[in-house]
Amino acid sequence: MTRIKRGVAAHKKREKLLKYAKGFKWGRKSKERLAREALLHAWTNTYVSRKLLKRDTRRLWQTKIGAAAKENGINYARLMGMLHKKHIELDRKILAEIAESYPNVFVKIVEEAKR
């Protein structure tokens, strides 16, 4: 069987690994073993952070909607319940944007839900 030299493939693998570790502090940006260890932790955290970002964004939308609803004399839970009953299908992202940027439109939505 012929001998296969892995020098080029191994070097490419190391370079790719170090490319991902660019911007890390100390030896973790330049030493293969430290970079691999740092990337294992970093990639774990990015997975978790993607989930947390979704959670935090939804909470922010709920806070914005709740604050705007309180100004109109209704709480968040009641408003969402009324919108659901009236089949006004605006999601929280859009409602939060309307509440923040177009308060007069939000007032009309609340009045329609109350009716």
TrEMBL record:
Q: Name one GO cellular component term.
A: ribosome
The record's section on InterPro entries has:
Ribosomal_bL20, Ribosomal_protein_bL20_C
Q: Return one Gene Ontology term, BP aspect.
A: translation
Bilayer-spanning residue ranges:
none
Superkingdom, natural source = Bacteria
Q: Which GO terms describe its molecular function?
A: rRNA binding; structural constituent of ribosome
| Record keywords, A-Z | Ribonucleoprotein, Ribosomal protein, RNA-binding, rRNA-binding
Can you tell me which family this protein belongs to? Belongs to the bacterial ribosomal protein bL20 family.
Q: What's its job?
A: Binds directly to 23S ribosomal RNA and is necessary for the in vitro assembly process of the 50S ribosomal subunit. It is not involved in the protein synthesizing functions of that subunit.
Tell me the HAMAP family matching this sequence.
Answer: Ribosomal_bL20
Family annotation (NCBIfam families): rplT_bact (TIGR01032)
State what protein this is by name.
Answer: Large ribosomal subunit protein bL20
Native source species: Candidatus Sungbacteria bacterium RIFCSPHIGHO2_01_FULL_50_25
Encoded by which gene?
rplT
